[in-house]
Design goal:
Oligomer: single chain
Number of strands: 17
Distance between the termini: 27 Å
CATH superfamily of the largest domain: tm_1862 like domain
Structural class: alpha/beta
Shape: globular
């Protein structure tokens, strides 16, 4: 097995989650991964491809998946066995703060002469704090780090200091922290992500290692795959650390960098060679303009793959565009996130469209042959009260009454949790938007992740709802929406009963944890350990299965068979 020049490690959100008792709450209900957030960023694949094209060998190790799949898997032992001049760890979203730091410490314990780099949105935001940890040698800032990382690796292998590497924060030989200019912000992605899915399969073959390349724990059972359309965003949702304003302020990105429509369609073609699972095209394809969107739909129509295509809208769309979606991707799934039924709340978070426009879009999508339409609402927003959240559930009932008879429309609700994103408009100016923050620093968030329930991990409350109210209103809303969907036949009785049991168990665990916290030390950890088995069952029993589209699991083919499938033109 060849020794890699770079090993990319994806940590679990909390390193010792298998020992700790933590009620994570419904923080990952609407994404494929578990509360351990085992899905590594797509950027890993792009980095591996770009560095591979420059002659470097890159290996990906998904520690989070390995730890979830096998309780006996020893992450520390594996790290000790690895050898590379450079290790990389992602700290993209802040829920990985604890796991990323612990893995960094482990890498340096066993490989003191190797270098360690951390990158991602949260790493970029907390670059200065990260350099306070002696284990961290470098932080790569920005949302496009493939080329700076290539230059950094060249410097490491040549044993020279990286003064000229853009976007790099680093510690020189005297121990002084240096901050190179953040000047590498490409306007387009023409040279990136060309054959990155092919490269991932090739790497799995090279290292005889399929498990470390799985996107998330259940991928073999539900092989949904994502395709990136851009880096950056045109929207300014106030809670998002990847909004247009956040990226402009942190990464000097004045506008999104888009991938060519042909590259996106190429990804769909290549993925369809590996799996017949759903393919999620991330981001509203209208962001670069209508010409781009119609061109991409034309290319998708020419492919006519059997995979169900999932598309996303950031706002209402005209019926003519929805009809074109249906013609290009028969039976497509559509997702839209109004976040609240209330126009005042929606406007406050940066989404200024009416319910009438939303309903016209839903109607148009169904007429265009949409196979499933998911509508997402959120709890923890400005001007929301417990009462207005319940009004949103009533609005979900209205949507089900109007559109739900054929069971294609499915509303969901979840909390803004566990964190209001650093760099977001609301995090940077909380008072303006009605937020109160409990944690600001990286270390405060790292410690908060170890709290025994998500109520204590939440880094905010609002003028209109306390943390306690956000948590309990979330569970009440989930129960009411679950009963509404069951009453309309949108979900089966078995699914509804399982969801009800899960919420009631969560509330009971929340009550017990609150009692244990109130009692204080000594004996707190022992009392928490006594309810760990039940808490773990609640944590891993998510509502994601409601979002799953009906497909057959992917057969576990030999690695070389997978490679033979993708290497065809």
């Amino acid at each position: 097995m060849p020794q890699p020049d770079l090993i990319l490690l994806h940590p679990p959100s909390i390193y010792d989650f298998r020992q700790r008792t933590i009620l994570y709450g419904p923080i990952s209900d609407l994404i494929p991964s578990s509360p351990i957030f085992e899905m590594y960023p797509i950027g890993f694949a792009s980095i591996a491809e770009h560095l591979g094209g420059a002659g470097f060998k890159v290996r990906i190790v998904n520690l989070a998946v390995r730890m979830l799949r096998d309780r006996k898997f020893d992450a520390e032992r594996l790290i000790q066995s690895l050898k590379s001049p450079l290790f990389g760890i992602d700290l993209h979203w802040l829920p990985h703060a604890q796991g990323a730091i612990e893995i960094a410490r482990m890498v340096k314990r066993y490989h003191p002469s190797s270098r360690l780099v951390i990158g991602g949105l949260s790493a970029s935001y907390y670059q200065k704090e990260l350099m306070d940890y002696p284990e961290v040698d470098y932080v790569l800032r920005g949302d496009t780090t493939e080329e700076p990382l290539r230059q950094l690796l060249e410097c490491i292998l040549a044993d020279r200091e990286p003064q000229g590497v853009p976007n790099l924060t680093w510690r020189d030989e005297r121990g002084k922290v240096q901050q190179n200019p953040l000047c590498y912000v490409p306007d387009d992605l023409d040279g990136f992500m060309i054959h990155y899915y092919d490269h991932m399969v090739q790497s799995a073959v090279r290292y005889r290692d399929l498990l470390n390349y799985l996107p998330f724990q259940r991928w073999l059972r539900y092989p949904i795959t994502a395709v990136l359309t851009c880096r950056g965003c045109t929207q300014n949702c106030i809670y998002c650390g990847a909004s247009s304003a956040a990226l402009r302020g942190m990464f000097n990105r004045e506008r999104p960098a888009f991938r060519p429509a042909e590259a996106v369609a190429h990804d769909v073609k290549r993925i369809s060679r590996i799996t017949k699972g759903p393919i999620f095209i991330l981001g509203d394809i209208r962001q670069p303009g209508e010409e781009y969107a119609y061109r991409l739909l034309e290319l998708l129509a020419n492919e006519r793959k059997k995979n169900q295509i999932i598309l996303e809208l950031f706002g209402p769309a005209p019926k003519s565009f929805l009809q074109r979606m249906g013609q290009a991707c028969p039976g497509f799934c559509l997702e839209i996130s109004p976040e609240s039924h209330h126009p005042e709340v929606r406007k406050a978070i940066g989404k200024g469209y009416s319910n009438e426009a939303l309903e016209e879009t839903i109607e148009g999508a169904l007429e265009a042959g949409c196979g499933r339409l998911d509508v997402f609402f959120m709890i923890g927003l400005p001007h929301q009260t417990p009462s207005s959240v319940m009004d949103t559930i009533d609005y979900c009932g209205f949507l089900l009454d109007r559109f739900g008879r054929d069971k294609r429309v499915s509303p969901f609700i979840s909390p803004l949790a566990p964190f209001l994103d650093p760099g977001s408009l609301a995090f940077e100016d909380p008072q303006r938007y009605g937020y109160r923050l409990f944690y600001r620093s990286l270390e405060e968030h790292r410690r908060a992740l170890l709290e025994p329930s998500w109520k204590y991990t939440l880094n905010y409350e609002t003028e209109w709802m306390s943390r306690e109210q956000i948590v309990h209103t979330t569970y009440e809303a989930m129960l009411r929406l679950n009963r509404l969907k069951a009453g309309h036949g949108s979900i089966s009785r078995e699914v509804a009963q399982a969801a009800e049991r899960r919420v009631n168990s969560s509330l009971e665990m929340l009550r017990l944890i609150d009692e244990i916290v109130a009692a204080g030390e000594p004996g707190r950890e022992q009392r928490l350990s006594q309810i760990k088995a039940t808490v773990d069952r609640v944590n891993m029993s998510t509502s994601w299965r409601e979002l799953e589209l009906p497909i057959a699991p992917i057969p576990l083919r030999p690695l070389r068979t997978l490679w033979s499938l993708v290497k065809r033109p």
